[in-house]
Design brief:
This protein has 187 residues and is α+β, with helices and mostly antiparallel strands. The protein has helices at residues 2-8, 33-43, 60-75; strands at residues 10-15, 23-25, 28-30, 53-58, 86-91, 97-102, 107-112, 123-127, 132-136, 147-149, 163-165, 168-172, 179-184. The strands form three sheets. It has a nine-stranded mixed β-sheet. Strands 9-12 form a two-stranded antiparallel sheet.
Length: 187
């Protein structure tokens, strides 16, 4: 989904440097609280068909950024400046850690993606699960259709083994509801 979202979806460049929370133009934002909220305001725009809830697969450095952002929000909760961001931690159904960031614009469910390392170390992909599905590929009656292979057992096995094969992949709809965020020093 990363190459698809980069080509057809939205791409945001987020500058690690401290800034004033402004849109730096061309999909570039800074990594401050204000910059993050402005990014979500653009990304969760209802005219783009967004559902309001996204799965965000993140590298370890991006997870650290959200941890720092949550700590900053927690320390400022008693200050006179209102911060409208709620961060909750939970354990997913498969034992993974889940960080939920809720804003007025929508909700991000952040999960650490172990494949985002090396050149993808400062990356996050936001996926609208309402616009993605796991589907079998449509065939032409000869290949790519679901089919049964019979008698695939190895010689010497007393019995019969059959297998059912289906070629499948991701069906991605409304590409503008998916985005790639690249964190770095863009200034």
């Amino acid at each position: 989904i990363v190459p698809y979202a980069e080509q057809y979806g939205k791409v945001y460049n987020i500058d690690w440097g401290t800034g004033e929370g402004t849109d730096m133009g061309g999909g570039d934002f800074d990594a401050s609280y204000d910059g993050f909220v402005k990014l979500l305001e653009d990304f969760f725009a209802p005219e783009g068909g967004n559902s309001g809830s996204k799965l965000a697969l993140c590298s370890r450095s991006v997870i650290s950024y959200f941890n720092r952002l949550a700590g900053f929000i927690g320390s400022m909760a008693s200050a006179s400046t209102p911060f409208n961001l709620d961060v909750n931690y939970s354990t997913g159904r498969f034992g993974h850690r889940l960080m939920t960031v809720s804003t007025i614009f929508g909700e991000l469910n952040l999960v650490q993606e172990p494949l985002f390392r090396g050149p993808y170390d400062d990356m996050m992909v936001m996926i609208d699960l309402n616009n993605i599905a796991y589907r079998p590929l449509a065939g032409n009656g000869i290949n790519r259709d679901t089919f049964i292979e019979t008698n695939v057992q190895t010689p010497g096995i007393d019995g019969r083994i059959d297998q059912i094969l289906t070629e499948s992949g991701l069906e991605i709809q409304l590409p503008e509801t998916h985005a790639v965020c690249k964190f770095g020093n863009w200034a």
